[in-house]
Automatic annotation (TrEMBL):
Residue numbers annotated as active site: 707
Protein known as: 5-methyltetrahydropteroyltriglutamate--homocysteine methyltransferase
Natural source organism: Pedobacter vanadiisoli
Pfam families recorded: Meth_synt_1, Meth_synt_2
Catalytic activity: 5-methyltetrahydropteroyltri-L-glutamate + L-homocysteine = tetrahydropteroyltri-L-glutamate + L-methionine
Length: 777
């Protein structure tokens, strides 16, 4: 029985990747230094897995920004607008790569970035491949081959990891009409054959193809593409050992298709879909090895060794020891790197820490599980088993997990607790008293968090600053932000969130039932890392969380100050969630805590309150048959959080990087007065869903992409707003960026927002009504 890993975190144990990339983008370091840091991280990852005793170690799981973008570059799927970037003298391959991810605005060029969206139901974002009808694929980057060779020079023969050809195409987007992306399979496959031939020449033994779409609903054309692709690969490389990796869900009605494919090893996710094991064991061909995904690659709870051993024994009894591998459920890029870095009990108590495992610890768990089955090093292995039993038992009986008062409040909820007092048509009349213009301008909430602002928070935590000193500085920064927004004539202001570290972590730190790591960083996209809170117990709100700074900001201006909150579904989705009760129950607990905050903001005089839910689409189960159950409790949780206020209080929500067509009714059911969405990268395409549905409430389509450093021109925003106006009535439209501005610099932020405000004013001039009547009616 062998152990294999599907992928390891690429950010580095101290977030070295983030730091070097951001320095490179800021022209503070050179190209060769970036490459060296990448090489150091890969070497460290490979050696760690080798020393832990992992038999089959991955390569090409490292990426400087995104592994899907890596593949687009490898396959030469480079949109034509980047041709000038390629030709620009002095540019390296990495410059083109980053231009595709982030846009390019220098040396006379102004090129927008590629679209970005969520990787299945995770909080990881990938860069969406762009395909045309006449798409040509060719080997452009040799990264896959180079990294395999690099590991081999270190004495480690790795298993190169590729996104499978069908999944790669299905992850992409047709950029013109007249074809389906899956039709490109015959164009794409020769590049895979080319790559495999080069790996075969270097004596690669295993190659992993990630095909997560095998756990989703497939069309007949998709299924035929799978049959064609793997038949051709097997025909070209009869001796190459192919690992087919599926994850995030069970195979379901794709079981027959998957088990018929000519591969050597099939990996299945037994964390998200434990009940599929019996069916897979029955359907698998005799000569196929089954890889059991037993260790949770997406959460931080310690593996239950006794349970895993039982599952392994079930498979071994059916298949034999040599036909069973064990592995994490999916790539460990969704896990923090190393629990050993958590040395401060103020952040993470010893009691909670004993229940956790990060990526490094998960690799060790994998090795221990193998030893438990093969009876290797029996004394030390049995000791680890006993320690594991104690940790699992301690968590079940811990007194810090359960709060009877919270459970009772959930049980006492009534149907009216999730409904506003009046329907939107009546609320809208009441909200006219806000006296806002058409094309009202606002931002999504956060303003740039400079190194200086972050240093204040660090000094408060390490005791260098007193609370009074810290509050004084935050107050000054907030006052400057409010004054600047007034100067550029924004209609609805925000306080800037300078006191906040992360849109989920900030709230979790003030809620009971949450714990926090110091170094539990996980990549969200590119250099953006998040540190998800750990929901270990019942959730409640001991005291107000945002009222102090929102009310202070409101006191500085006669304009409306928007209260900024993160919604219950997003707090749930972007946390490491307890796995000992249904997620729906945990979400309802969070919703009640946010409801209390919404009511307190209203009582403090805040008339406009935004409850961000960017993760509501992300939480959808991968199979459509299971969507409605999730949407029922997710939408209800949002409505519980928002429904305690009067009709005149305007509730906003924000969603980004999601497709809405298939859940538009559910978004309408959320009944927010205003929804702001990301639309600039898609050139307002996402608005079609709202237009076709005749969405009745108000909408703020993002007019510029905040994940790119480029500053859009006013004319560009006006063009997008005119496009929006063709499908959404102008009296329903707001004007705002795609997302929060926390990660941007002040210079680009100010320039972009000034252009945005002026674009809105230009749009108001186009309305055929007197200027004095340019109010919402």
């Amino acid at each position: 029985m062998l152990t294999q890993n599907l992928g390891y975190p690429r950010i580095g144990s101290q977030r070295e990747l983030k730091k070097i990339c951001e320095n490179y983008w800021a022209d503070k370091t050179g190209y060769k230094n970036v490459l060296q840091v990448g090489k150091n991280i890969r070497r460290e990852n490979w050696n760690l897995q080798k020393e832990a005793g992992i038999d089959v170690i991955p390569s090409n799981d490292f990426s400087f920004y995104d592994h899907v973008l890596d593949h687009s570059l490898t396959f030469g799927a480079i949109p034509r607008r980047y041709n000038e970037v390629i030709l620009k003298k002095g540019n390296e391959e990495l410059d083109l790569y980053f231009a595709m991810a982030r846009g390019y605005q220098k040396e006379g060029l102004d090129v927008v970035a590629m679209e970005m969206t969520k990787w299945f139901d995770t909080n990881y974002h990938y860069i969406v491949p762009e395909f045309s009808k006449d798409q040509v694929f060719k080997l452009f980057s040799t990264k896959i081959i180079d990294e395999f060779y690099e590991a081999k020079q270190l004495g480690i023969t790795t298993k190169p990891v590729l996104i499978g050809p069908v999944s790669y195409l299905l992850l992409g987007k047709e950029k013109e009409a007249g074809f389906e992306k899956i039709d490109l399979i015959k164009n794409l496959l020769p590049v895979y054959i080319d790559i495999l031939s080069r790996l075969d020449a270097l004596d690669a033994e295993y190659v992993q193809f990630d095909e997560p779409f095998l756990t989703l609903d497939l069309t007949e054309k998709d299924k035929k593409a799978y049959e064609y692709a793997y038949k051709e690969i097997r025909k070209a490389f009869p001796r190459l050992k192919i690992v087919l990796a599926t994850y995030f869900e069970g195979l379901g009605n794709n079981l027959t298709l998957t088990t018929s494919l000519p591969v050597n090893i099939l990996h299945i996710d037994l964390v998200r879909a434990e009940d599929q094991l019996t069916d897979v064991l029955a359907a698998l061909k005799d000569d196929t090895i089954l890889s059991l995904g037993l260790i949770d690659g997406r959460n931080i709870w310690k593996n239950d060794f006794e349970k895993s051993v039982s599952i392994i024994n079930q498979a071994v009894e059916k298949r034999g020891l040599d036909k069973v591998w064990i592995a994490p459920s999916c790539s460990l890029i969704h896990s923090p790197v190393d629990l050993d870095n958590e040395t401060n009990e103020k952040n993470l108590s010893a009691e909670i820490k004993q229940w956790l495992a990060y990526a490094k610890q998960k690799i060790a768990e994998l090795s221990t599980l193998k030893k438990l089955i093969t009876n290797e090093s029996p004394a030390s292995t049995l000791q680890k088993l006993e320690e594991n039993k104690v940790a699992i038992s301690n968590r079940k009986i811990s007194k810090i997990i359960h709060n009877p008062a919270v459970k009772a409040r959930v049980l006492a909820l009534k149907e009216e607790d999730s409904e506003r007092l009046s329907p939107f048509s009546s609320r809208k009349i009441k909200q006219q008293e806000l006296n806002l213009p058409i094309y009202a301008t606002t931002t999504i909430g956060s303003f740039p968090q400079t190194a200086e602002v972050r240093s204040w928070r660090a000094k408060l935590k390490n005791g260098t600053f007193t609370v009074e000193e810290y509050d004084h500085l935050i107050a000054q920064e907030t006052e400057k932000a409010v004054k600047w927004q007034e100067e550029i004539d924004l209609d609805v202001l925000v306080h800037g969130e300078f006191e906040r570290n992360d849109m989920v972590e900030y709230f979790g730190e003030q809620l009971d039932g949450f714990a926090f790591s110091k170094n539990g960083w996980v990549q969200s996209y590119g250099s953006r890392c998040v540190k998800p809170p750990i929901i270990f117990g019942d959730v409640s709100r001991p005291e107000p969380m945002t009222v102090k700074w929102t009310a202070y900001a409101q006191s500085l201006t006669s304009k409306y100050m928007k209260g900024m909150l993160t919604g219950p579904v997003t707090i749930l989705q972007w946390s490491f969630v307890r796995n000992d009760q249904p997620r729906s129950e945990t979400c309802t607990q969070i919703a009640l805590a946010i409801r209390d905050e919404v009511c307190d903001l209203e009582n403090a005089g805040i008339k406009i309150i935004q409850i961000d839910e960017p993760a509501i689409r992300e939480g959808l189960p991968l199979r459509k048959a299971e969507w409605q159950n999730y949407l029922n409790w997710a939408v209800k949780a949002f409505k519980i959080s928002a429904s305690g206020v009067k009709d005149g209080t305007q509730i906003h929500t924000h969603m980004c990087y999601s497709e809405f067509n298939d859940i538009i009714q559910n978004i309408a059911d959320m009944d927010a007065d205003v929804i702001t969405i990301e639309t600039s990268r898609s050139q307002m395409e996402l608005l079609d869903a709202f237009a076709n549905f005749k969405y009745p409430n108000e909408i703020g389509p993002g007019v510029y992409d905040i994940h790119s450093p480029r500053v859009p021109k006013r004319e560009e925003m006006i063009r997008l707003l005119k496009k929006a106006k063709t499908v959404i009535p102008s009296e329903q439209l707001w004007v705002n960026p795609d997302c929060g501005l926390k990660t941007r610099g002040w210079d680009e932020t100010k320039k972009a927002l000034i252009e945005m405000v002026e674009a809105a004013k230009e749009m108001r001039k186009t309305e055929k009504v007197p200027a004095a009547d340019l109010q919402v009616n």
